[in-house]
Design a protein that fits this description.
The complex is a heterodimer of chains A (441) and B (289).
Chain A (H helix, E strand, L loop, with lengths): L1 H21 L26 E7 L7 H10 L3 E7 L2 H11 L9 E5 L3 H7 L9 H7 L2 H5 L2 E2 L2 E2 L2 E2 L1 E2 L3 E5 H7 L14 H13 L5 E5 L5 H10 L6 E2 L5 E2 L4 H15 L12 H6 L3 E6 L2 H6 L6 E5 L10 E2 L3 E5 L6 H12 L2 H6 L7 E2 L2 H7 L12 H11 L1 E2 L7 H16 L4 H15 L5
Parallel strand pairs in A: 1-2, 1-3, 9-12, 14-17
Antiparallel strand pairs in A: 3-15, 4-5, 6-15, 7-16, 8-12, 8-13, 10-11
Helix pairs in contact in A: 1-15, 7-8, 9-10, 17-18
Chain B lengths: L1 H34 L2 E3 L6 E3 L3 H8 L1 H32 L6 H13 L2 H11 L5 H8 L14 H27 L2 H9 L4 H12 L1 H16 L3 H6 L11 H11 L3 H31 L1
Antiparallel strand pairs in B: 1-2
Helix pairs in contact in B: 2-13, 3-7, 3-10, 4-7, 7-10, 10-13, 12-13
The chains are: A alpha/beta (441), B mainly alpha (289).
């Protein structure tokens, strides 16, 4: 039954898949400047080879992709080693940094890529760039580039969408937002609707962003207001958070809490439950929430991520890529494994079998997305996600200083949403980031 | 003579402890100090000697100056508060009254809760729509910001830490009070001393050893507070809860700024040495008087 369901879903998704392939995977701006790194040419089909692969996920997550790969190359076996997420950065630092050859392939959180590439922790994979470009949406292809070279392949992707509570909108007499990306709501409309919802007593609050103080989610807001990513300069180590767009976005954000449209004091893992507990009408979250909200009794629907009136529609994106250890002694086999898990749609799809996450490969995504509409409340979500990854997804800026920026930015956004004066807090943030970035100067 | 014969055996038995002390305490401390004098190039991993530049750069940094001020203010409030509360509770629970055992267990109970779990629990209670505010509203007190309010955040953390700490430190004082021989109390009673007189002239002087241990241990453990800050406030709002240990963790593990993180560690150790020496000095003077 399950298989039948799956194959019929895949059949249904054929239309989407062809649409996707036609509308062009990656009419990208980034191309590998120099393909200095030649593809390894050793024969990998006869001798027994053991590849070792390191990442933060539970081992069962990668069983399907590893089994699929081992079936193609019976002489190669892949050993997966799980490193807890909070120890991953230090482990990579210690093992890859010291030239340990016992790791061949490892997972790379995309915003960290620049720093790893700059430190020489990632093998140049530019020889795979043409194939990657053909297989990936533009943002998922671009995100692996640093200094004109490709250092990893994208395996997973993410996007954001807006969940809404139909019963609350009915009570307040508001028409449901359309699932059509061409008719996406503006933040101004969300604010007006929120006021109505609060006034009519349909809910305590209007809306909430899932990762309420994360740059991942706020970048799309600032970019929609015309402020850019906020990180500029040739070395991408300067901040530009005081321009008109950023000021507009930050002011709007602060006001949304002051007016009570968004609830203050809720963060981390507490945001989703606010929607499930029917305390608010709109919730901007990720595809994983389809699974999470699948268990609640809210009469919800899905609409595209909002934007500012007169601004550009921009959505968050990004997730995990996989890269190769430059000290690996099995580079040819490792490259084949990376290709299978990312560029090969079948292999890429297998990485998502055990987890609700969007495959980065365009064809795999097209096969995967309709499955998310198994819950009738999620109707239209496949089309939304397809559209966003193709048209509005904006990756986080490629900078060696991302990690420091991300952490300091969250702290500042937390203060700003609680009412701190924006211009002085941004000045403090800029000083603190400049100080942390002294490491790179 | 006999002592000399014992020397090899002594050495043999002490060796594991000494080696552990050297390997796990002294060598890392020296390494940390050396690192605090180096600047590491993030890209190449090359280290250059920069003297006390890391210390100077920290001293010049307004955020770090704020961290020091917050840490000192925190220390000045939290330690007396916890010691006095623990003492008061131990004086209370040493007496028998209805439900005293049950109540004593309840006071000790928070010690058994992992610090991270306590922090998550308190963060839910401190929320604008959380338990504390709903109690406040029901008795007519306006909604408070707690950890979201710059003026209340540090105090909120102090309250949470005391909820955990007071019961723990009370145990030591309770044991100390129980160690005081009953005869002394009987003698005091025969001399006609009342409760207050007995407390101040018998209990407290004879409790001075456990009390000074508790004072020093509280001070040190409160200098090292870190998980609640990371979970509740991340040093905010506006740096108002930026305790030194949290600052060090962020520098080292979020920013990868090992040189300045190690410099900050030595500044923290310096502060602890000064604070504890001052306490010993005052305690000794108090005892001499």
């Amino acid at each position: 039954m399950k298989n039948f369901l799956k194959s019929s879903l895949q059949f249904a998704s054929l239309g989407l898949a062809s649409a996707l392939v036609l509308t062009g995977c990656a009419s990208s701006t980034t191309t590998a400047e120099e393909t200095s790194a030649a593809a390894p040419t050793e024969d990998i089909t006869s001798e027994p080879i053991t590849l070792s692969f390191m990442g933060p996920e539970a081992p069962e997550t990668f069983v399907p992709v590893i089994e699929g790969f081992e079936a193609l190359y019976p002489n190669i076996s892949v050993n997966y080693e799980q490193i807890p997420f909070d120890q991953l950065a230090t482990t990579i630092e210690q093992r890859i940094g010291s030239g340990d050859s016992s790791v061949d392939v490892y997972t790379v959180d995309q915003p960290w890529l620049a720093q790893y590439a700059a430190k020489g922790y990632l093998e140049d994979l530019s020889y795979l760039s043409d194939e990657a470009q053909a297989a990936m949406p533009e943002a998922m292809y671009d995100v692996n580039f640093y200094d004109g070279k490709m250092f990893a392949v994208s395996v997973w992707n993410s996007t954001q969408m807006m969940f809404y509570n139909k019963d609350m909108l009915d009570t307040a007499g508001i028409e449901y937002p359309s699932a059509d990306p061409a008719e996406r709501w503006t933040w101004e409309e969300i604010d007006a609707a929120s006021q109505k919802i609060i006034d009519s007593g349909a809910a305590q609050y209007g809306y909430l962003l899932e990762q309420v103080i994360a740059y991942y989610q706020f970048q799309a807001i600032a970019e929609s207001a015309g402020g850019g990513s906020g990180i500029v300069g040739d070395d991408m180590l300067s901040l530009d958070l005081t321009n008109e767009g950023w000021t507009k976005a930050l002011t709007w954000y602060q006001d949304s809490f002051e007016s009570g449209h968004q609830p203050t004091g809720v963060g981390g893992f507490d945001t989703g439950p606010m929607f499930s507990d029917k305390k608010l009408a709109f919730f901007v979250g990720g595809p994983w929430d389809i699974g999470i909200f699948g268990g609640n009794d809210v009469n919800w629907g899905v609409a595209p991520h909002p934007y500012f009136e007169g601004g550009e529609a921009v959505t968050p994106t990004g997730s995990w890529s996989w890269g190769m250890n430059p000290a690996s002694e099995n580079k040819a086999a490792a490259a084949e494994f990376l290709k299978y898990a990312s560029i090969n749609p079948e292999g890429n799809l297998k990485t998502t079998e055990a987890l609700t996450i969007v495959p980065a490969n365009a064809e795999a995504a097209a096969a995967y997305l309709p499955g998310l509409e198994g819950d009738p409340r999620a109707a239209g979500v496949a089309n939304i996600m397809l559209y966003e990854t193709q048209n509005t997804a904006r990756t986080r800026p490629t900078t060696v200083g991302y990690v420091q920026f991300d952490s300091l930015f969250s702290a500042a956004l937390e203060d700003i949403r609680n009412g701190t004066d924006i211009s002085s807090r941004i000045a403090d943030l800029t000083a603190a980031v400049d100080d942390a970035w002294m490491l790179f100067k | 003579m006999k002592n000399k014969e014992l020397l090899p055996a002594l050495g043999l038995f002490l060796a594991p402890a000494l080696l552990a002390l050297i390997g796990m305490r002294l060598i890392p401390a020296v390494q940390a100090f050396v690192e605090s004098l180096l600047k590491t190039n993030v890209f190449s991993g090359d280290k250059t000697f920069v003297g006390f530049d890391n210390y100077i750069s920290l001293a010049d940094n307004p955020d770090f100056q704020n961290t020091l001020m917050v840490t000192l203010l925190f220390t000045l409030i939290v330690n007396p508060l916890q010691v006095v509360s623990a003492l008061a509770l131990s004086l209370l629970f040493v007496r028998k009254f209805p439900f005293s055992r049950l109540l004593r267990s309840l006071v000790i109970f928070p010690v058994a809760v992992p610090p991270a779990v306590s922090a998550v629990m308190w963060s839910a209670m401190y929320r604008p729509d959380g338990l504390l505010n709903s109690i406040f509203t029901s008795i007519g007190i306006p909604t408070q910001g707690f950890i979201l309010d710059e003026k209340q955040a540090l105090m909120s953390i102090i309250v949470m830490l005391s909820w955990i700490g007071v019961g723990y430190w009370m145990l030591f004082l309770l044991a100390g009070i129980n160690d005081i021989p009953d005869e002394i109390y009987e003698a005091a009673k025969l001399d006609g001393a009342g409760y207050l007189r007995t407390t101040f002239s018998v209990t407290l002087p004879l409790l001075s050893r456990p009390l000074s241990f508790v004072l020093v241990a509280t001070t040190i453990s409160n200098f090292l507070v870190f998980a609640p800050v990371l979970i509740l406030t991340k040093g905010g709002p506006n740096g108002s809860t930026s305790l030194l240990m949290h600052d060090i963790f962020i520098r080292a593990y979020s920013f990868g700024d090992i040189g300045r993180a190690n410099a900050a560690v030595f500044i923290l150790i310096g502060l602890m040495v000064v604070a504890v020496s001052l306490q010993f000095f005052l305690l000794r003077r108090g005892n001499e008087q």
